[in-house]
Amino acid sequence: MKRIFIALITVLACSLIACKSGQKKDGNMEKETMLKIETSMGDIVVKLYDETPQHRDNFIKLAENGTYEGVLFHRVIKDFMVQAGDPQSKNAPKGKTLGAGDVGYTIPAEFVYPKYFHKKGALSAARQGDNVNPKKESSGCQFYIVTGKVYSDSALLNMEQQIAQMRLNNVFNTLAQKHTKEIYKMRKAGDHEGLMNLQDSLIAQAEAEVAKSPEFRFTPEQVKAYTTVGGTPHLDGEYTVFGEVVEGMDVVEKIQNVKTDRSDRPEQDVTIKKVTIL
Fold this sequence. Notes:
two-stranded antiparallel ribbon
């Protein structure tokens, strides 16, 4: 069976609720979508972003129809994230592998980056990996809350360089795929000089293509968050961030510290009792 994961640099996996509370903006009263997630370890209140309307509306729908009642936080990784929303986790026996459950549909990615990123407390949608999901569409039900860790300035700088190199590699690989037959023929003929010339040409093309886009840099807001409260910066731009925790981060901390088995499932079930719109 397929499994939905949220990636630690590539792949790894999703649940929640909804509420309305007034907030002033530029003198006008606007509504924010707030939800309370009641768990067996305490309550978590989250805010959903209006800029990700499909994820917001879907989360509200699932909260209202009771989809999340009884599901587990089935995947917990300390200093990374806590994940829930798998319908198959309801009343799941000990030892059952979880993470493959869904509601029969996906949600198009809604990246609002870099405004919304994977800071500690971010609410994000899980999804399947790029190999089967190149459009990075979100699971229709599974979600995770970021715990992450605090990074140093030098660590973020190193990560920027890695991301830049990754972008270059991705462009190079895309170009190389267009020359698959040519590469195969040269390899078969032992034409090492031809292969090196083609490689040099593709590298030059890739560098020229990457140069058309601004060099990747974390924003000042990201740097401040990742060097103070923490987060998971390597997930930025890969998974849709559609909300954040506004109350109950202490509960999330308790959940991330529970003892887990080899599949990262808590040994003692952590259950979502109810998700309600405030």
